[in-house]
Amino acid sequence: MNFAPVSGTTSADAAGNQSSTTKTSASPAMGKDAFLQLLVAQIKNQNPLDPADGVQFLSQLAQFSQLEQTMGIKDGIDGLRTQVDSITTVLNNAQTNTEGDTNV
């Protein structure tokens, strides 16, 4: 799994000299598939003698559920916006045709 570096990170070389990078990624924010992959990797690679906190795990699942619901709402609003735009275009065209047909 490849991950883009975080912008504004600081690293140190073998001599202890620190250098900072400000590389930014051109990709959009993390998607739900990437989030699930990170969550599964976190669970797989946890220390069996010191497992992850169950409350934190449930909190992450709740955040993911909330994210999915928000994305569904956004998709619904985008669909409504498209419908309103198309209706507005039809009404404007009808009004323009009506105004052009009247003789004074």
Q: Please state how the strands of the largest beta sheet are arranged side by side.
A: 1-2
Shape: rod-shaped
Report the span from N to C terminus. Answer: 71 Å
SSE string, helices as H and strands as E: EEHH
Structural class: mainly alpha
Helical stretch count? 2
Low-confidence stretches: 5-11, 20-26
Name the helicity range: 55-70%
Counted up, domains total 1
> How many beta-strand segments?
2
Mean pLDDT: 74
Strand content: 5-15%
Radius of gyration: 26 Å
Largest sheet: 2 strands, antiparallel
Describe the 3D structure.
This protein is mainly alpha-helical and 104 residues long. The chain has one domain (27-101). Helices cover 59% and strands 8% of the residues. The protein is built from two helices and two strands. Strands 1-2 form a two-stranded antiparallel ribbon. It is rod-shaped.
Keywords:
about 10% strand; single chain; mainly alpha; about 100 residues; two-stranded antiparallel ribbon; 2 helices; rod-shaped
